[in-house]
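Re-run requested by the PI after the first attempt was lost when the workstation crashed. Everything re-entered from the original request form. Ligand of interest: 2,5-dideoxy-2,5-imino-D-mannitol.
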Amino acid sequence: MAPLPSSSLFSFSLLFFALLPSILSLPDRYDVQTLAAIDQSPDSQRNDLDWEWQRTGFHFQPVKNWMNDPNGPLFYKGVYHLFYQWNPYAAVWGNITWGHAVSTDLIHWKYVKELALVPDRWYDIKGVWSGSATIVNGEPILLYTGWTNSSTQVQNKAVPKNSSDPLLREWIKVDAENPFAVPPPGINTSDFRDPTTAWIGQDGLWRTAVGSKYRANDTGIILQYRSKDFAKWELLDESLHAVNGTGMWECPDFFPVAVHGQQGSENYLGEENAIQKFVIKVSLDETRFDTYVVGDYDPASEKFLPSFEALDIGTALRYDYGIYYASKSFYDPHKKRRVLLGWINEADKPTSDIRKGWASVQAIPRVVWLDENQHSLRQWPVPEINSLRKHPIRHTDLLLKQGEVFKVNGSQGSQLDIEVTFQIPKAHANDENDEFNFESSRVEGIPNNTLIYCNGSFPEAEQIIGPFGVHVLASEDLRERTSVFFKFLKFKGSWKTMVCNDLTSSSLASDATKGVYGGLVSLSSYKNRQALTMRILVDHSIVETFAQGGRTCITARSYPLLGSDNNAHMFVFNNGSLPVKATHLAVWKMDKIRYTTV
Ligand code: DQQ
């Protein structure tokens, strides 16, 4: 048997004994009839009501069992499609199929009764892994990775059975063409996966790219393929991008962004290059981070060049500094924007997931565009999410003294959308002229070091301001809480500004990891240098934070014991040694989505 992917090997060995009972109850081979007969309607599937409160109210999740990567997002005939890696049999990874959901607003999803792809061919019998959708001559085509009967990763193609059906219920694998790519020399059979949405090159031919790793030196790489008919594909000599020592690159994404404004694009060619930059995102198998780099792409040489080498893959920028992985973007022609979907894993133990009967959710789709600084991205929940807001509570000019904690009355609940603006405190109360050194707060490519600034007292810091922020999913006595806050630290005359999510007092009765997440906040490119902003989507076990207009994002899992549902309270706090003003605070309760099946 060929070796398993290293990450899978690790996960499998960890999981195996814990999950033995569930593994034993799996069918010993795929039974397509059984898969097709699974009723995905919510009412028939919900179980274990004790744990029901951890389910999300407005973040997408399947009715039961394990889900991971979002696959093949697309807009077709007025309908958004979300496919996802799904295990129909258990709340742990395995038996991977493509589940399918549709919506008209990226928020109110309906489960499609039919599974889009199930493992039923020699070239995908061990799993239908991640892939993408491309509109080719007006009709969608799926490219995906199959795990073959001999445990080799290969690339395959599927087409709609009926392309006039806006719901695209049924898909046909193109046996005559599959697999269209197998691992090339120098690449392990277990390191070749996740084809991107295809694009058209300068020669008018199609390109797609596949995530990989050089066997010899642990270099993460994106291989490029070319085709004139979307049937036969040839490997190009030049990779799209590669970075030494970064390990396997999963789920690559490659897309243009406008230099000015928020409009999306799917044009990879010539003239527009003057006003476009390009983004490469990969999911690093070794660290489980989604990391990206902004650069230029020359369609003639098919070369991508990072704008700043110091910000290349694996060294600097992440979409999200919490739990967020295997993301995939697509161009939304309906609203002319680039939309990003991402997988949020659980933070509790697989045994808890088995007890719950489900694992993982999808993040709220985010609009993505290039920041004014030209080297990093901004992300913001699609505006359609605002339709769930109700009963706003607003406060202005809340002055928080040192150590003050302000309870936001009327905001009880586990489904909230919160927006807060803080005035940047004067660095020294008596020194009107003491300016922050905004330039030095730029993202500097040190993501691993950033965590430490969230936690601890730092005697070597010349000055610390904050933390100030909000507690959510908090019990009334604050014994249990999840805290999102800003913190400034001055080292050698330079300020570092952090946004942090502290889970150490959360999830009192859970076996979840209770760490501290953090990301640097870039103040240098922010127009209003007097303000710090955060938006937080709270959804039972999810806390999704967008700081500084989406320049730094953190997604976390929190499983409250005391601070859930109507016992979940929200506070604004200032634990720093200087007064802080929250100039604007708005809190909305969010509607629950009733998922149905079509
Ligand atoms: N998940 C899929 C792979 C991909 C990984 C398998 C990323 O195709 O590389 O479920 O989470």
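Saved to the shared folder this time. Helices lie at 6-18, 20-24, 32-37, 42-45, 350-356, 447-454.
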